Amino acid sequence: MAEKITAVKGMNDILPPDSARWEWFEAKVRALMARYAYANVRTPIVEPTALFVRGLGEVTDIVEKEMYSFVDSMNGDKLTLRPEATAGIVRAMIEHNVLYNGPMRVWSAVSLFRHERPQKGRYRQFHQIDVEALGFAGPDVDAEQILMCRALLRDLGIPMEHVRLELNSLGQPSERMAHRAALIAHFEAHADVLDEDAKRRLHSNPLRILDTKNPALQAVVEAAPQLMGFLGEASLAHLNAVRAVLDAAGLAYRINPRLVRGMDYYNLTVFEWITDKLGSQGTVCGGGRYDGLFEQLGGKPTPAVGWGMGVERMLLLLEAVGVLPPESSPDVYAVVPSAEVMPTVMAACEALRAAGLNVQMHASSADGMGSMKSQFKKADGSGARFALIFGETELAEGRVAVKPLRGEKTDAGQVQTLQPLDDIDSWAPGLRAAR
Ligand code: ATP
Ligand code: MG
User: What span, in angstroms and rounded, lies between the C-alpha atoms of 88 and 178?
Assistant: First the structure.
């Protein structure tokens, strides 16, 4: 046998039966987006490297050490597999002048790539649901997006006691400059405890030191001056307006003055949804306002706000709290007693599917259709609620036998019935499971 080829480390195959959970989750997301009037967008997985360097900031974990970047061997272009969704969406909006007619709410389901150490809840290819409200300056949209997240958690059946919302304001650039000077002074005074990363970032991007995952730095980080103390009236008013909506909506949150996000483009509102069910990979959703990003990427000044939700972490959380998506089995399994009737059976199955049934048809193997016994075993294993038995005698009379497989009732009770194939609409819809 030829040598096996395996998937790239940290990149997962999503296969049955797990893929059913993904589809169920995605359907909930699509319904949510329709309810909040967010339109779907899809942008390329590969972007010019410069987009992320300029968009996220040169001194961020993602740009410094997590990007999959490569040179296009055809023309020498520097390209990167997208490590986050926002920069690409903003690029597309600017490039196609999409906001010409006014602001826009969009969402996207994306694969992202980051060269991190793979572990539970942390992968090198992962997935996010991403929402962005583009061209909106007011705090109402920040709050709307936070409430959307709660609505999704509810739709999924995740009890709110397992997640908490943390909120902060990063203020405006001028306020951050004043805070930055205070931060540098603080960290310089404690230079002896800083690690290499922190020392390098001290003058380029001291705010990033607050985002460190190094436990040895926690004490000095906790003692650092907080941005909240440098916020002006307008920034505080924006934060308070977001809080007023959340309060009125009965959504509890904690102000976490140390909450900073992994990209430099944020200002004013930032937030994270965190669970304690997933250890150190507990942040399931994070987002905030990024009013400066359009200009940074060559567009007109355009206020915006968005969040990204980790799909793998949400699915792990669902598992941890015991929420199981509904089984996805076919309604009926078509038993095909002989190869001779197969063309007729296939035609009948097409008609049944057109009538709204999910039909799994027994397929032949190299040595024929197989015994009835083995077909019924497969019918059972498929999870179908009914077997349709296309016996030759019944077919000759234009009928099919319907046999309940798991105590399901047909109109005639739990017994096997014969149904007419020329009037499928009179009985087939009754075999449909609730979906
Ligand atoms: P973390 O601090 O856990 O590294 P982050 O701040 O880098 O997260 P964001 O860039 O804000 O994460 O992405 C939003 C969400 O995407 C996270 O809250 C998380 O749920 C998910 N996520 C981020 N990185 C990964 C990854 N490598 N694997 C799986 N999910 C991830
Ligand atoms: Mg990260």
Answer: 31
Say if residue 17 is preceded by a cis peptide, omega within 30 of 0. Answer: yes
Question: What would be the CATH architecture of the domain defined by 18-171+231-320?
Answer: 2-Layer Sandwich (3.30)
Whether 180 contacts 264, CB under 8 Å = no
Q: What is the pLDDT of residues 259-279, one digit of tens each?
A: 988 778 899 999 999 999 999
Distance 268 CA to ligand 2 centre (A): 20
pLDDT in tens, 64-100: 999 999 999 999 999 999 999 999 999 999 999 999 9
CA of 66 to the centre of ligand 2 (A): 9
Site to probe by mutation for ligand 1, drawn from 283, 290, 311 as the one with most ligand atoms within 8 Å of Cβ, is: 283
The strand ranges marked E within 311-427 are 332-335, 359-361, 386-389, 399-404, 417-420
- Over residues 161-170, the pLDDT tens digits come to 999 999 999 9
- Assigned token pair, 185: 């002074």
**What are the extents of the domains in the chain?**
18-171+231-320, 332-432
CB within 8 Å of 41: residues ≥ 6 apart: 89, 92, 106, 107, 108
CATH code for the domain defined by 332-432? 3.40.50.800
Q: How far apart are CA 120 and CA 277, in angstroms?
A: 12
Q: How far apart are CA 24 and CA 323, in angstroms?
A: 12
pTM greater than 0.90: yes
Q: Could you tell me which of 431, 435, 369, 373 has the C-alpha nearest to residue 406?
A: 431
